[in-house]
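Final report, closing paragraph on structural work. Over the funding period we assembled a curated collection of sequence-structure pairs, and we close with a single example.
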Amino acid sequence: MRKLRILSIFLTILMAGNWGKAQGRLSENIGNFKSYEKIPHGIEIAAERGKVRITAHTDDVIRVRAVQHEFAPDFSYAVIQNPLGEFVSVNDEPAKLTLTSKNLIVEVTKNPLLVRFLTTKGTVINEDEPNLGISWNGTEVACYKKLQPDEKFIGLGEKTGNFNRRGSAYENWNNDNFAYPTNADPLYTSLPFYIGIHGNSVYGIFFDNTHRALFNFGASNHRFSSFSAADGEMNYYFFGGENVAKLIQDYTALTGRIKMPPLWGLGFQQCRWSYYPDSEVLTLAKTFRDKKIPADVIYLDIHYMDAYKIFTWDKTRFPQPAELINQLKSMGFKVAVIVDPGIKVEKGYKQYEEGLKNNHFVKYPDGQLFSADVWPGTCHFPDFTNANTRAWWGASFEGLINNGVVGFWNDMNEPAAWGNRVPEFIEFDFEGRKGTLREAHNIYGLQMSRSTYEGVTKQMNNKRPLILTRAAYAGIQRYSAVWTGDNAATDEHMMLASNLINSLGISGVPFVGADIGGFAGTPIKELYARWLTIGVYTPFCRSHSEFNSVEHEPWSFGETVEDIAREYVTERYRLLPYLYSAFYETHQKGIPVARSLTIDYTFDEKVYQPEYQYQYLFGPSVLIVPTSSKTEFSKVYLPEGGWYKKDNDKYYEGNQETIVEAPLSNLPVFVKAGAIIPMQEAIQSTAEKPDGTLILHIYKGKNSSRFTYYEDDGETYDYEKGNYLRRELVYDPPKKNIVIGKAEGDFVSKFKKYKIVFHGFEKIGRIAANGTEVKLAKDSGNTASLIVDAGSNAITIAW
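Its predicted structure, as stored:
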């Protein structure tokens, strides 16, 4: 009997172990190579414990998919680029497969199956960690990469901590995180694209899996970096390229690029939870104009609605919304309103009745409608993965658009509900594929923004809207700007904002900003002043504050702060030609407007140091040095090249650290030597025409440089039909000339003259425009200028 009992226990343990492996309860890798076959664009490999597909998406982008059983039909809300590449050759050797594209080599070792990426010269860029590689732990799928000794990591979008992610781990699970700590994770967005840097190599990885995901960049280990998801496929794109800019360009070709934003969306924007009634909104607008502080957009938060019901107006607070918006329009203001996804459960409420009738709301597995409490009370939630629901949602904006609203602020779309625990088994359509919130959670904000964008653009008669969102997934740049959520009124949050904005840019999202002054809490006057001087040099520029906080308008902190606000906001409006042209480069190539120094100075170790990681380029040539409000001096690192202090034209050689004065009225800002900065005279809003002179600021440098100047009507999509103006501006020191290239496109510029301002030029003698001598005027300091007629032909300024 004793022997039988021992045998029984042994069999029980053995069966438990086998059952555990059968159920995937123990971590196991994909095993050894068995065979392969060719498929379109690449190969499919059969391995011991799964299958792998490796395809050449383009010459520089390789896609890797892996499953334990069978591949599901290909599906992505992020990827819009079709496969374009082919492998030039596939060589089957005893120990490995070698796949060669035009610009990359992929080696697949057979025992065990591991993937390695190399340059065409044979340099290893990235490789799987031996014995780990692609693995499963239950339903979790992971890919482990060998950690290089000097490897640094940047990207992943809206993540706290150091800009270099080395030694940290992060979770992607969109989260409503009010007044989040400055080390909080996760926040509101999931952007699973990062860049690795080691030696002289750079590469990118986009992990396109929308389940809860984890990224480990050597946290608590010295062996590997990894990315994993709670379920679904291993599905990643590997980007090889010459530099970080090329990686971003290829990533945004894959996931899409921003359309040109409305010009007014680049102006200063004022928001509060909440401005009401209508008389307060008009007073706000009038005060901006009376105080000569430029502004373009006023936001209406949740109190504009009837009992917080989406697509309605409170009849007491806003009895005549169309008339109000017309009055604001006459003052040069646009109106944006908040839009939350929750639809109140209320008989007779139009959106509730329509959603109920047409099956637009998400459900539990038993067919019962999911409901949760948010601002209006008990609500149902639209299924934005259903095309019919997206069309219905988009059509629901008709009333707001007819009233004159042109900005749409998508909030609470993580999705958020009181308790912050939406059940993960509620069901979604996924374009007929069917799925649950486990897969839909991270793309809910993306799909809501898509629904809003597609709906309002269809109704706005060729006019560009401003769409803003809190939650997002990869590809959000096609539809919306992003702000960094409910931050707090502290110096730490102000400094963190620069890292968040710059990391979002690296991750393909260029139209980004943070709530100036901090949303939660009350800033001291010094903090608001400093934050505003930084905020005007961010792509999206909005001051915002929470309910019951003290007023956060630019004049709310006394005359000194008001004067600083007026000066800096006015400067942003002067810079609009430069800023709009930078957005054109983003639209064309994906290169962000706010550019971490890691983009242009990737292998300069100093740009990764915590004390300098907040610095960034605003557009290609203006260096911003975010500085605490608690200090009047700032330690600055100037990368290679030459730099001019923007306020006084003092010249500094690059590759040096220096200390500069940084009073509240003078944020450290530098301009790159050789830069061409197009500007205009001051205006109070983009509805006001500038004076007709485009001012080209030229900063003396040793090397040739160029800038693409771009202009269109700033309002419509006619630029897609050729109604734009583009001119290549070239500064060529060896030839001692500046060339304003021939005008391209059908748009007639609003500028009739060009004023060329020379900075840092000690002596300029005779100067000519297209061979005809032109009078040179002496300006203040060490600058000089001349004025020439614009015309459409090329203009050469020689001295």
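Residues 1-25 have pLDDT under 50 and may be disordered. The longest strand covers residues 725-732. We thank the funder for supporting this effort.
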